[in-house]
Amino acid sequence: MLRSTLLAAARSGGVRRAVETNPLTRSVVDRFVAGTTPDDALRATRELADQGLSVTLDHLGEDTENISQATDTVQAYRRLLCALHRAGLAGRAEVSVKLSAIGQLLPADGDKIALDNARLICESAEAAGTTVTLDMEDHTTTDATLDILATLRTDFPWVGAVLQAYLRRTEQDCRDLATPGSRVRLCKGAYNEPASVAFRNKQEVDRSYVRCLKTLMTGSGYPMVATHDPRMVAIASDLATRTGRAPDSYEFQMLYGIRPAEQRRIASGDEGMRVYVPYGGEWYGYFMRRLAERPANLGFFLRSLISG
Ligand code: FDA
């Protein structure tokens, strides 16, 4: 109930204004967001890289409603990729892109605009010597996002995608994508989805996550195990051992600011750990999804508003 309310608020303009304009919100946002500028993103990348972690950078923004905003987002990614290359960090950091930030939801030709824009970002990534992963948004965009992935991969075979274990369709999507060269980031899913398309209770989502993991680990792609759940991490490591995977043939991924000690612990062993680092001014939707994932985050947020 609380989760659904917060996820509905993530798409409400009124709540957004109240949260964004509260001066006390910032300190809580800073826990999950690396800053507002590309320099902030580079600084966070360097700090994480120095600790043996890899990074995927997300220029925050989603549900773009006008074409110039979509173009600005593409330019921001292109500048960021050049800066990563110049700073010698492209071997450590890739980028994650939400197609709705680069035009997917525009009323006329949204999918085509998003594809063309994603292609520009992929060209810059290739020139910088790194990769792109397409984030996955709500279920109404899954087919279109996977179609765009398939088209992009004809020119850029290294483009990765996110699959969400809470969707009933995802086991089949994992089977389709567990192929050579394919990079799949498996997460549980962060949107408010109806029971017709998604598992709604944690046990069902976790069971689906394990089934999907099995498919990806026994397949021939590159699984990216995106979870903070200690049980899922242990199961993934175990499956990797049992399927004879080398430690560099898969990786773990976690979000910036969540379980940082565990991120460093995993990175200090044989297995890889990549941190998803969001930066930029458009943090509202991302931040509200993090609150919805864990009631304790909401308590922390409300206490900071009350106590200053
Ligand atoms: P679960 O929610 O069961 O949490 C397990 C434990 O992790 C909790 O008990 C707590 O200790 C810790 N934890 C989890 N969330 C926390 C939080 N917000 N704050 C503090 N502690 C927390 N989703 C999506 O729909 N599309 C996408 O493209 C992506 N992309 C993505 C990339 C990466 C790298 C990650 C790690 C996650 C995503 N997600 C996502 C989000 C994902 O779907 C999911 O909502 C969160 O990862 C939380 O699920 P867990 O697997 O961590 O398990």
From TrEMBL:
Matches recorded under SUPFAM superfamilies: FAD-linked oxidoreductase
UniProt cofactor note: Binds 1 FAD per subunit.
Keywords: FAD, Flavoprotein, Nucleotide-binding, Oxidoreductase, Proline metabolism
Residues binding substrate: 98, 289-290
Positions of the Proline dehydrogenase domain: 42-300
Organism expressing this protein natively: Haloactinomyces albus
Reaction(s) catalysed by this chain's protein: L-proline + a quinone = (S)-1-pyrroline-5-carboxylate + a quinol + H(+)
InterPro entries: FAD-linked_oxidoreductase-like, PRODH_bac_arc, Proline_DH_dom, Proline_oxidase
Enzyme class per UniProt: oxidoreductase
EC number, as in UniProt: 1.5.5.2
GO terms for biological process, alphabetical: L-proline catabolic process to L-glutamate
Pathway of action: Amino-acid degradation; L-proline degradation into L-glutamate; L-glutamate from L-proline: step 1/2
Protein name: proline dehydrogenase
Binding-site residues, FAD: 136, 164, 188-190, 202, 227-228
Cofactor(s) named in the record: FAD
GO molecular function, a single term: proline dehydrogenase activity
